[in-house]
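Why do we care about 3D structure at all? Because function follows from shape, and shape follows, mostly, from sequence. That is the central idea of this module. The next example makes it concrete: a single protein chain, its amino acid sequence, and then its structure expressed as tokens.
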Amino acid sequence: MKVGFIGLGIMGKPMAKNILNAGYELTVFDIHEKNMEELVKLGAKKASDGKKTAEQSDVIITMLPNSPNVENALFSKNGIAEGLSKDKAVIDMSSISPVASREFSQQLAELGVEFLDAPVSGGEPKAIDGTIAVMVGGKKEVFDKYYDLLMSMAGSVTYVGDVGAGNITKLANQIIVALNIAAVSEAMALSKKAGVDPQLVFEAIRGGLAGSTVMNAKVPMILSRNFNPGFRIELHIKDLQNALDTSHSIHASLPLTSQIMEILQALKVDGHEKDDHASIAKYYEKINNLTIE
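And the structure:
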């Protein structure tokens, strides 16, 4: 199986490396030349555009920031669609609107090309060590065909339904993560304001019902003042905007998502959009005039 990979950013580059390490023949493309160099040194082939990537591949994976980026990669001049032929497949691992995923799937079906939406969770560390969680929407038989390829990058790969279901699942994940970080930050701000060491509070409660993967990953970052991006505030804003747009289209109410979105927007106004989403804690620090450490 020849694999094409488009989008070698914070997540895409380590994911592509894991595909290469699993023994697949890999062709890569990114709009930034330097992003391809490391993969080429490891044995990947370099393509000059999406069309060339698709021509040289049986299946093409995209890992891009948002719906317009995926649409451009697929359907612009010299884009992926121009290099596709019947029986090839596109697996979009970006976190985008489920409505857009369904539209892209329909357009590619007219070319005889299968489509999976397969967003991921876990951030850069899990992308590097190959333990991301992948949630996949599409035809079950297409999922089965590419399961081993997806597992070469992941700790878990779960089929969740038809096209679009992958991104609905990812939006659910992103709502929970954002609200969990906010809850942890609020609790740690209370502890600090009350004169109790947040580190000791963390150690005391992490093994109880309040404990979570998010708490274990983000509280140490908050306490050490490490806001280097694993997952940037601006990307979480993008995901929650997709969640709110989707909820409005189906007449669902997401009041807590709306509230955390306002917090993220306030952080962006303060210049923190490139920080890790652990910097949600900075909002609570600002309104309480304290530092959580």
